[in-house]
Each structure stands twice: as structure tokens, then as C-alpha cells.
Design goal:
This protein has twelve helices and 18 strands. By secondary structure, it is of the alpha/beta class.
């Protein structure tokens, strides 16, 4: 009887084990089948580091013709690019990917002008562009260049104390120039003092924080350019009279903007929101988290931007202009008209209470078909400088503004994110505690628990 019972139990256990093995094998087979048929992944990183950006998705999903990405490398290294290439293929059926080994097919590599292993070429029709890197930024940049047929030039005005695109210091615009290059814009400097005329090849004109007054011929050149259908970004700082680097009032330029429906105020915005301290900025940096519905800022919802030493503006529609607010300062901000002293009284009844308009976008009716002037006015220029361009969403705002002005609305989005520095910085005492805990305390607890269990069983 006992022997029969034992055999029955053994049979039952064998049956259970067989069923479990079959279930596991079935699940593994199904998982592998689905993984081979459907290439899906989940990015659990905090900033979606391993997911393609909104900009890339917008461009690739909007393709109207087939695109071929050809990756040139040694056959044993094709796997290095397959994950990234697969992400692009998943976005649109119009994306095709080919892999070529230059050693096995040197003729094709020579025709494509390939000089290095690990190079990708994006092709639409007969037009090809080589990716500048094998990261999303490089591949998407090649997409943009191959889709845009005309050279686009951003002209930065120089000669009156503006930020310079060749200046790599904290106040320079060299990083702004570099960002523009990634979206296939050329950046040049022009001097309206030498020749009071905006060159015809300028896609967008940028006035970046002049510290000296513009002369009337300079202002007239900007006026003619926009009112003839040109596009301009004007960033004007408050006329501070503190220290050795005073900012001129620039009344002639302000008068032009007023005629267009934008009136820069002679004030300085201070943001008393304590969140600024958590982000490492002081009250002279206006923080923005809410935006209007204009295309430039539609994609910035939930993203903070910061504007050092900013002024407020007032807007209204004009006879030939339509002006739309982009964003305001926070409710906790105020504007002081005391521009000649560092001592500011937040309780001064003369202060204007926030929110205050910081930026606006406008259009000018030229009266010509398919010819519309566009302009953007922002009451700060340092937000786009090297020291502040990488602050949260500032870089996206800068490129979105240029894209809208240049009628490249299809490029307006959030760009590829830079890798976050997730390292933990600890003091020497904290390192000693972590080392002691992991090397001695935890092993000791395991030993004590083991001895305790052994003693109880004994």
C-alpha cells in the first residue's frame, strides 16, 4: 500500500513537472516568435535616452517618398547599428536600411565617397547626405539636409555690441551657431553700419542684444527687410545703467517695433519664485513654464525656460501686423523701473506685478501673394548665449524660433536629448560608510542570520 501510494505521488510529481516544463517552453517559443515578428522596446530611462526624439518621429513619419539608409562597415560590426536603424524603420514603412561591407563591395563604397568604417548615408531619389555621426543627432541631421533643397542662412547683426557667433566665451553665441549647423542652417555675421542693407540670401535676420544705439539707416534696413517679406528675431535687453557695460536705450529700434505692435518696456523683471533657487538661478532669471498656443512654443508644454536680465513688452495688433504672445513671466515676478542700482525693493508700489509678457511673434502683411513678413521679439538676449543655452528648453526654443521664422514649421519639436549625468557624488565620509556597509556589515548580517537559523534547527 505504501509502495503504491509512493508510486502515485511520484507519477503526480512527474506529471506536474512535465506540465511546468511544457508551459515554460511554450511561453519561450511564443515570446521569441513575437520578438522576431514585432520589434518593440521599452525605454525606462528618466529622459528617454534610448528613444528617438519627437523631432525625428515628426520628420520620419511625415515622409512622402522612400528613404534608403545605407550603413557602411565591416560585416562583423553591422550589429553596432542595427538597433538604431531598426528604430528608424519602425517609425515609417518608407524607410529602408541596407548594410554594405566596403571591403567586400569597394565599388559601392567608392561611389558613395566612404572614407571611414561606421558611416551612414541617407538617400532620397538621387540626393544623398552623409550622417555626421552614428547617433540620432547625426542621422536625423542627414534626413533634414536631404529633405531641404535650398541653402538657408541665418544672418547675425554685428557692429553695435551684439553677441557674436564666433565668441566661445560665456556671452558668445558660438553654441547657438553650432545648433543651427545641426539643422542645416549656415550662420553669418553682417554689419549694417558698413552697408545699411540686409543681404538677399538671409533666410532669418537675428539682432542679438545690441548694447549701443542703432543708427537710423540700420533701423531702416531692418524695417525694409521685414516689410518686404523678410524674417527677423530681435532680442533686446533692458537698458541697464549699472557698471561699465551699460545698455543703450535704442529708441529708434524700439520705435520701429512699436509701429509693428510690440513696445519694449524700460524695466527689469525679477522672479521671486523659490523654484529658481532649486534650479540654481537667482531672481534676475525669469522662469517660464506656461506658454501660448503659437507654433513656436506648442511643443514646449511642461518644459521650463529661463531668461536672464529680461524686460517686459506690451503687444497689440497694428494696421498691417498681427501679434501673438508667446509666454509670460510667472505670477511671482515683478518688474522694476530702477535700472541704475542693484538695490531693488520688492515692495516698492511702483513695481509692476507679474505675470508680464516676455516674448511675442508677429506677422506683417506685405500686400503681396505668398509673401509675409515675420518677426519675433524677446525681452532678453542672454538666454541664447553659451552660458544659458543649455538650460532646460532654451535650445529648443531657439531652434523652434528660427524654424518658424524660416517657414520650416515641420522641424519644430523637441530635439534629441543629451545623455544625463547620473553619477552620485559623495563625500569621503559617505564613501567610507558605503564601503564599510557593503564589505563588512551586510556580510556579517548574513552570517549572523545563517548561524541563527542553524542554531534553531539544531
Amino acid at each position: 500500500m505504501n509502495t503504491g501510494l509512493l508510486r502515485a505521488r511520484q507519477t503526480k510529481y512527474v506529471a506536474y513537472a512535465t506540465v511546468y516544463v511544457l508551459v515554460v517552453l511554450t511561453a519561450v517559443v511564443i515570446a521569441n516568435f513575437l520578438a522576431n515578428r514585432y520589434n518593440k522596446s521599452y525605454d525606462a530611462t528618466s529622459n528617454k535616452r534610448y528613444s528617438l526624439s519627437d523631432q525625428t518621429a515628426k520628420i520620419v513619419k511625415g515622409l512622402k517618398q522612400d528613404v534608403i539608409i545605407t550603413y557602411f562597415d565591416q560585416s562583423t560590426r553591422f550589429d553596432h547599428a542595427k538597433d538604431l536603424m531598426g528604430e528608424y524603420k519602425n517609425l515609417s514603412p518608407k524607410v529602408k536600411v541596407e548594410y554594405v561591407d566596403p571591403d567586400k563591395n569597394p565599388q559601392e563604397a567608392r561611389e558613395a565617397g566612404i572614407k571611414n568604417y561606421g558611416t551612414a548615408v541617407v538617400q532620397i531619389g538621387n540626393k544623398k547626405e552623409e550622417a555626421k555621426s552614428m547617433a540620432e543627432e547625426g542621422i536625423t541631421g542627414a534626413f533634414i539636409r536631404v529633405l531641404k533643397h535650398n541653402t538657408r542662412t541665418v544672418c547675425f547683426v554685428a557692429g553695435s555690441g551684439e553677441h557674436q557667433i564666433d565668441d566661445s566665451g560665456r556671452n558668445g553665441y558660438s553654441q547657438f551657431k553650432e545648433l543651427l549647423g545641426k539643422e542645416s542652417y549656415e550662420a553669418n555675421s553682417i554689419d549694417l553700419l558698413q552697408k545699411a542693407e540686409v543681404p538677399g540670401d538671409c533666410t532669418v535676420l537675428v539682432v542679438g542684444g545690441p548694447t549701443r544705439d542703432y543708427q537710423q539707416p540700420q533701423v531702416d534696413a531692418i524695417k525694409k527687410y521685414v516689410e518686404d517679406g523678410g524674417r527677423a528675431l530681435l532680442m533686446l535687453d533692458p537698458p541697464l545703467k549699472i557698471g561699465r557695460s551699460e545698455v543703450a536705450d535704442n529708441d529708434a529700434l524700439n520705435s520701429l517695433l512699436q509701429n509693428w505692435g510690440v513696445t519694449p518696456q524700460k524695466d527689469l523683471i525679477l522672479d521671486l519664485n523659490p523654484i529658481g533657487q532649486l534650479l540654481g538661478v537667482g531672481p534676475q532669471v525669469a522662469l517660464v513654464r506656461t506658454y501660448g498656443s503659437q507654433p513656436i512654443v506648442n511643443e514646449l508644454k511642461g518644459t521650463a525656460t529661463g531668461f536672464p536680465l529680461s524686460r517686459s513688452i506690451e503687444i497689440k495688433n497694428g494696421d498691417k501686423t498681427s501679434v501673438q504672445k508667446l509666454f509670460d513671466s510667472s505670477d511671482s515676478s515683478l518688474a522694476t523701473s530702477n535700472l541704475s542700482s542693484n538695490a531693488v525693493d520688492p515692495n516698492d508700489p511702483k513695481n509692476k506685478k507679474g505675470p508680464l509678457t516676455l516674448a511675442a511673434a508677429g506677422t506683417y502683411d506685405t500686400g503681396k501673394q505668398d509673401s509675409q513678413g515675420r518677426f519675433v521679439v524677446i525681452g532678453s538676449s542672454s538666454w541664447a548665449a553659451n552660458s544659458f543655452l543649455k538650460f532646460n528648453g532654451n535650445a529648443d526654443l531657439a531652434l523652434n524660433t528660427i524654424d518658424w521664422l524660416g517657414s520650416d514649421e515641420d522641424l519644430i519639436s523637441i530635439r534629441p536629448k543629451e545623455p544625463e549625468d547620473r553619477r552620485i557624488t559623495m563625500t569621503r565620509a559617505q564613501l567610507t560608510w558605503v564601503r564599510s556597509t557593503s564589505q563588512f556589515l551586510l556580510p556579517l548580517l548574513v552570517i549572523v542570520a545563517g548561524v541563527s537559523v542553524w542554531w534553531k534547527r539544531r
